[in-house]
């Protein structure tokens, strides 16, 4: 009855068939990433039943207190992806240094960056969280991969995706050929293509920002939000709606579903800490920018296209403003004035 449904494995293999010179390496890698996300989904889903909620009692390189699930998800990603011979190295939010593939395994030609658990402050309150990943190519002549090999602009990404652990578990994927969404059928343990060709409407009347930072915002962001809040009485002449989930994966998924704007912009508080933004370029901003652009949206720092940035450090942070194209153009215009 269900055998006419497309599984993610079938989708990936059939897509790669059209790529000249494809060896199956990339399909194998995506398959391992999918497996890792299924394992994390299961763990997140069982929550308190298996004792995985709460703090791990230590900090990561970002100075954030790690949740148990941050550490466990990181471990699952490493173990699922290190053995198969597709990767040269990995990098994660939860590891200060890059993770070169151990010598006991064959070394492959790709690099994998990931945010193993995004929105992890939401685990204890049972609100949606996710996993974000990005795949880069490792240069052929690299013998021992270093942090430097990861510092490629987002335009070099071969693939990017996220898993969303919400009421359903979903996987959203781009290999630079549009965006497709898959829903995990828990009964058979497979992601099924349920959202082919996802696109972001160019216009929206919905925005997402952490308004507790309002007093720190720069004038262009303040202006945009003020105009939204003024509603039909203001210059926009229409009422706007607002959301803030505090899980970027869930916000981006909403935007891919019904449009919207997501902002974690530069502000005075971030600047005072000497940081370039809140979100991390290599495993949050770039993969999400790739997905959003592939769905017809736009992703900027305010002044530049995120995917054009030349990364300078593994855990570099950047401002992120992404979503419906016409609104992002408007916000970019406000930054240019
Ligand atoms: P992470 O849980 O991977 O550290 O990322 C959290 C990020 C992002 O998902 C979310 O948009 C933002 O931080 C929430 O920040 P605030 O708590 O400042 O709202
Ligand atoms: Mn974190
Ligand atoms: Mn995150
Ligand atoms: Mn995280």
Automatic annotation (TrEMBL):
MF terms (GO), sorted A to Z? fructose 1,6-bisphosphate 1-phosphatase activity
Q: Which residues bind Mg(2+) 2?
A: 115, 118, 284
Transmembrane intervals: none
Question: Which pathway does it serve?
Answer: Carbohydrate biosynthesis; Calvin cycle
Note accompanying the cofactor annotation: Binds 2 magnesium ions per subunit.
Going by the UniProt record, its keywords in alphabetical order are:
Carbohydrate metabolism, Cytoplasm, Hydrolase, Magnesium, Metal-binding
Instruction: Give the catalysed reaction(s), semicolon-separated.
Output: beta-D-fructose 1,6-bisphosphate + H2O = beta-D-fructose 6-phosphate + phosphate
Which NCBIfam families does the UniProt entry name for this protein? Answer: PRK09293.1-1 (NF006778), PRK09293.1-3 (NF006779), PRK09293.1-4 (NF006780)
Q: How does it assemble?
A: Homotetramer.
Q: Which family does it belong to?
A: Belongs to the FBPase class 1 family.
Listed name of the protein:
Fructose-1,6-bisphosphatase class 1
According to the entry, what is the taxonomic lineage of the organism? Bacteria, Pseudomonadati, Pseudomonadota, Gammaproteobacteria, Chromatiales
């Amino acid at each position: 009855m269900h055998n006419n449904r497309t599984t993610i494995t079938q989708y990936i293999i059939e897509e790669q068939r059209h790529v000249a010179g494809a060896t199956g390496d990339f399909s194998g890698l995506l398959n391992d990433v999918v497996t890792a996300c299924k394992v994390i989904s299961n763990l997140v889903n069982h929550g308190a039943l298996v004792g995985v909620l709460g703090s791990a009692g230590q900090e990561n390189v970002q100075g954030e207190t790690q949740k148990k699930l941050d550490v466990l998800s990181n471990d699952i990603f490493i173990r699922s992806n290190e053995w198969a011979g597709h990767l040269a190295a990995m990098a994660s939010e939860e590891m200060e240094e890059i993770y070169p593939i151990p010598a006991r395994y064959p070394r492959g030609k790709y690099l994998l960056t990931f945010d193993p658990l995004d929105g992890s402050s939401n685990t204890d309150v049972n609100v949606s969280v996710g996993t974000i990943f990005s795949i880069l190519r490792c240069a052929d002549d690299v013998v021992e991969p270093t942090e430097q090999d990861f510092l490629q602009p987002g335009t070099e990404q071969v693939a990017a995706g996220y898993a969303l652990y919400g009421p359903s578990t979903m996987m959203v994927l781009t290999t630079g050929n549009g965006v497709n969404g898959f829903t995990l059928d828990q009964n058979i343990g497979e992601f099924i293509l349920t959202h082919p060709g996802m696109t972001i409407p160019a216009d929206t009347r919905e925005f997402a920002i952490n308004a507790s930072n309002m007093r720190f915002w720069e004038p262009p962001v303040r202006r945009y939000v003020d105009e939204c809040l003024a509603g039909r009485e203001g210059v926009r002449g229409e009422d706007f709606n607002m959301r803030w989930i505090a899980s970027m994966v869930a916000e981006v998924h909403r935007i891919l579903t019904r449009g919207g704007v997501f902002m974690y912009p530069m502000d005075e508080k971030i600047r005072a800490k000497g940081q370039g933004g809140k979100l991390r370029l290599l495993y949050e901003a770039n993969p999400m920018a790739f997905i959003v652009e592939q769905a017809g949206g736009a992703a900027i720092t305010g002044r530049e296209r995120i995917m054009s940035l030349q990364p300078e450090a593994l855990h570099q942070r950047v401002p992120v403003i992404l979503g419906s194209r016409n609104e992002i153009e408007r916000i970019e215009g406000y930054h240019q004035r």
